[in-house]
Write a structure and sequence with these properties.
- By secondary structure, this protein is α/β, with parallel strands linked by helices.
- The protein is built from ten helices and five strands.
- It is elongated.
Length: about 210
């Protein structure tokens, strides 16, 4: 059975190109073509497409907003974002909202079908730098589980670099006793009793 693909793209010429590329490939069919994503959620509910090609910047509602709405009720549909710019914060935000991956519009003619195939095989088409941003974000979120303040996080990073209390105090211009108090709070949150344990836990859990 052909995989159903729906297109959400406000540029008419690109919309037609996407549709033509899909139609000439066996195994795919176009289940909908739209110039905006205002009705994207309704379309997904009514037609259950396998794949969405979603422009990031569209009138009325952005692709990122549409992804959030769709993911609230459907976690299985593949969503590939279309963008003019690589490694842009909007791409990162779209991935974090639930998009599967993204494709540069200038590469649509030669990379659209490979990107769709990669996503169908469980992959996530994206650049290494976007992937790195996501890993860093996940690490930051994990650190937030301990509810570190910005200052505590900063001091923990210094501890992991091997800095002494005195060195940390000098580096961030606080008194030795203030640093000692911060580190005591860090130990309590990490449930450890020494700098060695704190550093080991921070590194093992990728908190920095």
């Amino acid at each position: 059975m052909p995989k159903k693909i729906s297109i959400f793209e406000d540029n008419e010429a690109l919309r037609k190109s996407l549709e033509e590329l899909i139609l000439i490939n066996n195994g795919f069919e176009v289940s909908g073509v739209f110039g905006n994503c205002l009705e994207a959620s309704k379309h997904v509910k009514d037609n259950n497409p396998d794949i969405l090609l979603m422009d990031i910047d569209m009138p009325g509602m952005t692709g990122i907003e549409a992804v959030k709405k769709i993911r609230a009720f459907n976690t299985s549909v593949i969503i590939i974002m279309l963008t003019v710019f690589d490694d842009n914060k909007n791409v990162f935000d779209a991935i974090c909202a639930g998009a599967t991956g993204y494709l540069l519009k200038k590469h649509v003619s030669d990379k659209l079908i490979p990107a769709i195939q990669e996503a169908l095989e469980g992959g996530a088409p994206m650049s290494p730098s976007i992937a790195k941003m996501i890993v860093q974000s996940m690490q930051q979120n994990k650190a937030n589980d301990y509810k570190f303040t910005n200052r505590e996080q900063e001091i923990l990073e210094h501890l992991c670099k091997g800095s002494s209390y005195k060195m940390i105090a000098a580096e961030i211009n606080l008194s030795f006793e203030t640093i000692r108090t911060y580190i005591k709070r860090i130990y309590e949150k990490l449930q450890v009793h020494s700098a060695t344990e704190a550093v080991s836990k921070a590194l093992n859990e990728k908190l920095i």
